[in-house]
């Protein structure tokens, strides 16, 4: 049975201080189920601003690049304070330009930080939250892992090659986790945005040009929320949906078939 986020009691939104994360957090707050929404991010003043809007919005400061033990402590503290937590949205992300025609100008520290922010920290946090979600599964309660990838996970943009690669990794991971959790109450719902109104590009100086063609944040949020409420495992929006139809449609089913075949082979080899 397909279950959507409308069943959630408590949602953590990471990367909630701006853009997609902030907008989704506010939309989730307005669900009929009246969930508690925990907004996480690095900028305390923005978390405080959000928390002032409702007693069901709680701010927690977190740096997803802080390292494994810091993230382990964050997950432990969050679950101790909010034991009803049943959904996590991973919206943290940065985008950097790299031109490999000039390898001497490629900042490998910045590249590694982008990889950590956009992918490694997310895998780490998913792994750390999973014991809690598996306990909810034993109780018959649904839980939700909600990565936010990108249209660039499907068709990369060569001027942001590492960003596109990290989002492709998140996309692939989402499909694999969805197959692994197929027989559980743990749902993986991947949101795949197009170019959306945000602060992501401010440091690149491209915001004025991109603002002429990006999807308004309010429009994106409405469409993404519709998919989350329905419980769609893949939620491509805007031109991401067109690319998904061409390149990705049917991939989940093929991945699941491959996974089931591999499990059967393992059984036969034992």
TrEMBL record:
Gene3D superfamilies: NAD(P)-binding Rossmann-like Domain. The keyword Oxidoreductase applies. The keyword Repeat does not apply. Keywords: NADP, Oxidoreductase. InterPro entries: NAD(P)-bd_dom_sf, Sc_DH/Rdtase_CS, SDR_fam. It holds the Pfam family adh_short. PANTHER family: 5-KETO-D-GLUCONATE 5-REDUCTASE, SHORT-CHAIN DEHYDROGENASE_OXIDOREDUCTASE. Belongs to the short-chain dehydrogenases/reductases (SDR) family. This is NAD(P)-binding protein. It comes from Somion occarium.
